Amino acid sequence: MEITVGEILEGKVKSITNFGAFVSLPENRTGMVHISEVANTYVSDIRQHLTEGQDVKVVVIGTENGKINLSIKRLEPKPARESGGRSGNAGRRENPAQAQKRPQRTPTPPPAPKTADQLFEERLKQFMSESDSKISTIRQYSDHRTRSRRR
């Protein structure tokens, strides 16, 4: 029987490595589940998800040069994405019912105007920071020149 891409098989975890797990398939065949194909979340240690001898259901995602590539996560339902952050939904319109469920953001008030003392303090801090940086650079340069002359 030929194994085809998209076929769902049952197998047993034969061995586990740092990069994936080898699964015994029917007809004495072996396929590999890469660590990135184990779960829908980030997997740092595959041993937290699989154990040797465990029965697993896998889907064939590729066959190259006699090697069978398998996936466990493609059989699991995809988790719902949390809104916010970098979701990639910038140009999509939102359902009005969903918009009502989302908490409304209150606009932040503009910062109060700074007094003359606050402005002076900020300028002084900036000057001191730049001055320290320049002095440090000059010291490094002069120390280097001094050391090179002594040789």
Describe the structure.
The chain has 151 residues and is of the alpha+beta class. It is built from two helices and five strands. A hairpin with a 3-residue loop joins strand 1 (8-16) and strand 2 (20-25). The chain is elongated and about 80 Å long. The termini are far apart. The model has no long low-confidence stretch (mean pLDDT 82).
Structural descriptors:
151 residues; alpha+beta; 5-stranded mixed beta barrel; elongated
Brief write-up:
The protein has 151 residues and is α+β, with helices and mostly antiparallel strands. 27% of the residues lie in helices and 24% in strands.
Overall pLDDT confidence? 82
Instruction: Report the major sheet.
Output: 5 strands, mixed, barrel
Strand content: 15-25%
Report strand order across the widest sheet. Answer: 1-2-3-5-4
What percentage of residues falls in helices of 4 or more residues? 25-40%
Rg computed from alpha carbons, rounded to a whole number of angstroms: 30 Å
Number of strands: 5
